[in-house]
Amino acid sequence: MAEFEVEKNNDKEYVLSMVAQDGKLLDFVSDELKNDKQVVMTAIKQNPVALEFASQNLKNDREIVWESVSKVGWTACYASEKLRADKELMLAGVEVDGQILYYTAKELRDDKDVVLEAVKNKGLIVKYASNRLRKDKDVMLAAIKQDKRAKEYFASEELKQDEDIQAILNPPQE
Q: Which of 18, 88, 131, 172 has an alpha carbon 20 to 30 Å from 38's alpha carbon atom?
């Protein structure tokens, strides 16, 4: 792969050809081109992690963030606060990486659809779910099916004793 020529960091055609080969080269382009939707989208399509280097303006662009988060998930940490409250966008992310529940807006940590998807993917992330959902049988069943250590995050003693939950935590011996 060719070496990135920093003196050409504001030459759109050059930058487009370079980020199409390696999206992370977005880090070295001019601020003006980090705010160019075509350049940033090209970089993210090549490597979704390139979202880190996009302008703040484009980290608030749903289409740009979708392209990254729906493929990698954890890049939600770079999304604007507004987009971290976008249920559809965060659902796409938690399907890929449940860990991003940590980055979602507080109201989505109390959204059963989002939390269920996240814990199916990573049970221990239930730690960041709302107290209300850590008392929800469906959520906690999904979490402990994925990782029994999620039992540490039950918000209800009563639920810990539920027979379906106990059947997973303490399966009958054959």
A: 88
